[in-house]
Amino acid sequence: MKTWLSLALIVLILSATVYEVLRHRADKVHLLLSGQVDMCLSCHQEEPDQAHQAGVVGCAECHLGNPLASEKWRAHRGMVKNPGELVWAEKTCGRQGCHPSDVPNLKKALMATNRGIIATLRYYWGETDDPRENLTVEDLQRTGKTSLALDYFRKLCGSCHLWVKRGELPSFLAEKGGGCTACHNQPPPRSTGNKRGKPHPQITKKVPLEACVRCHNRSGRLGLTYQGMIESEGYGVPYDEGLPRSDLIDGRSVIRIPPDVHFKAGLVCIDCHLREEIMGDGKSYAHFEEQVEITCQMCHGGDGLSRKGRKAPNFKKGPNGQPVLEGKLDGRLHPLAPPKEICQGRDHQRLSCQACHSWYVPQCYGCHVRQDESQSQLDKVNARETKGLWEEFRSYMRYERPVLGVQGNKIEILVPG
Known about the structure:
There is one protein chain. The chain is an alpha+beta fold and 417 residues long. The protein has a domain at 24-79. The protein contains 17 helices and 13 strands. Strand 12 (403-407) and strand 13 form a beta hairpin. It is globular and about 95 Å long. It starts with a helix and ends with a strand. InterPro entries: Multihaem_cyt_sf, Multiheme_Cytochr_ET.
């Protein structure tokens, strides 16, 4: 009996002591809605966005560290600056209760693996017999594997993938990569910030076109032509063939021409492309055309179903019962016109919509590369200088009526490059 009384007395004393500590430090102790303590909030008042409010999620749920410590050095031990990096994502964004399925799917998606680019390069350069081999950026980072084709990839292509650490590469390349951050982090409003005046980037699912075009502006140049820009050779003059010329952040010159009709209507990339196309559906695809799902018919004359049977969430019926596409950024309703009768005729069944409705595509001929082994260049996969400098040369570019060819049972546009 005395033992129980002693234990009860000890518990009572400890409880009173803890109560006094909390009473005197009430302004320093912060409880989340989940009932967890997060001492980070005694110093940091940043608000990433409504869904990730500090009082709901806290700081340590994303940035790790020790949320129970009051000393800065203890609290910051094990902390990560960018929770969206794929190396941390399973412990941060992908933790249970947050986005557990998205992170493993994303790691298999082409934006993370670059599998198709790597396999195609190695196949055409004679380094593999398998144009579908499964060699990824993560493999290159982990193993250091290289070759002539892989060195070319590392130095000229390797900045556009989700495994690159945001801020690690120089100049404009610093804005690329960062895993989940690459798309979902946007600059903070000027009015937000903490005691030190360091505002937190805003986390958003409303991904603007600029975030996509940060990477999707080479190869097929889709991000450029969609906005009404075509590359020119660029001779430093304000006009080229009578058209106004401007320069991109990487130094390339472009000429302004009429943009895509969807761009003129105010549609951005995520209005049409599905979540599973962008972030992956758990499968490891070998090439871009296998992962992409949308078709023109999906909205124009269709029921909003992709070629893999997934429904576009913003495909809806308008006030008059006609199909509309709701803009994901601004909520605008865009009427969806059905195909004209001639398009549905027997003579047009093999024609893709693009074969008639695209009046120009980038056509690059005479592209050459060379390597100078006497110099070094930044390996963008591992962020360090290595021997060998690669340069690209173009001898002929044009934007004319596209070349048509047969792919499968369809007549499609061919883009030489």
